[in-house]
Design goal:
Largest interface: A-B, 37 and 37 residues
Shape of chain A: globular
CATH topology of chain A: Alpha-D-Glucose-1,6-Bisphosphate, Chain A, domain 4
Strand content of chain A: 25-35%
CATH class of chain A: Alpha Beta
Largest sheet of chain A: 7 strands, antiparallel
Strand order of the largest sheet of chain A: 1-7-6-5-4-3-2
Number of domains of chain A: 1
CATH architecture of chain A: 2-Layer Sandwich
Oligomer: homodimer
Radius of gyration of chain A: 15 Å
Helix content of chain A: 25-40%
Chain lengths: 159, 159
């Protein structure tokens, strides 16, 4: 048997986790409803100008971060797995409907685990090469995803 | 709403279909069991030297065509959708476990539709660019996939 892709490979992957003071159902809503995503998914002072979600395997996850200077960047991903309240997987290696993208960069795995009154939210960004992992790291992955997960921690209890 | 990826886009996709004299269950088995895949999935006189299947979203579909001169070529794909007897989707844009591949080329959609005593088997190869579509065409897509689907037509009734 060929070795499986490991869930977390420190050579290729980046991980951020936070405990959220909300149920897994509420945390799931924060991750899967455009009106919620727009409230926390861009590191401040950036905002999410647009968000489109078709929550099924093959469906679109498209969002548009806007910087304070007005610069926008469109990110179009495809959902791969949708396991409500537990696990969400999406990638920019495929466009919606699974068509290969021209510049694949990462696959994201987001998992939720109940911890009493809290929910542990873990995000892993998987890359195809050490070069892309290192690039994502240099782009400020831990500042970026770390910051948005801090914003999730602040936002989710109010849903 | 953003336009969805169309099921078949002649600018980007290639399609081959055949009627198989077997049930959808039998045709499905031909597509999803390594011992069957090895019998028909390489255009003769090539053979499939190895085949590994983990039939679930995120699971591996790995096969090794061998040419008569002994040349082997390893193809590693990831299943995306597994809808028994109806629809199978896999891609080489992701490795098993959804890790982005370094050289994404195509996503394959295989559908089965009962037609009385026959089953219509349709395969679509989706590409990310016209260049990759044209490359696949020039590589002999219609000869290759056309030939293996003819081999499926000959093989499946004997399962």
């Amino acid at each position: 048997m060929t070795p499986r892709s490991k869930p977390f490979d420190p050579r290729l992957d980046l991980k951020v986790e936070r405990e959220v003071r909300a149920s897994a159902e509420t945390a799931w809503a924060a991750w899967t409803r455009p009106e919620h995503i727009r409230q926390w998914y861009a590191p401040a002072p950036g905002v999410i100008a647009e968000c489109e979600i078709d929550l099924r395997p093959g469906g679109i996850f498209r969002f548009v971060p806007r910087q304070p200077d007005g610069t926008e960047h469109v990110v179009t991903c495809c959902y791969l797995e949708v396991d409500p309240f537990r696990r969400l997987v999406w990638t920019d290696a495929l466009l919606p409907g699974y068509r290969p993208a021209t510049t694949p960069f990462f696959t994201a795995l987001m998992t939720l685990e109940p911890r009493g009154d809290l929910t542990l939210c873990t995000t892993v960004a998987m890359h195809g090469s050490e070069g892309n992992r290192d690039l994502h790291d240099a782009m400020g992955f831990h500042d970026g995803w770390g910051t948005v997960l801090d914003q999730l921690v602040a936002f989710a209890p109010g849903i």
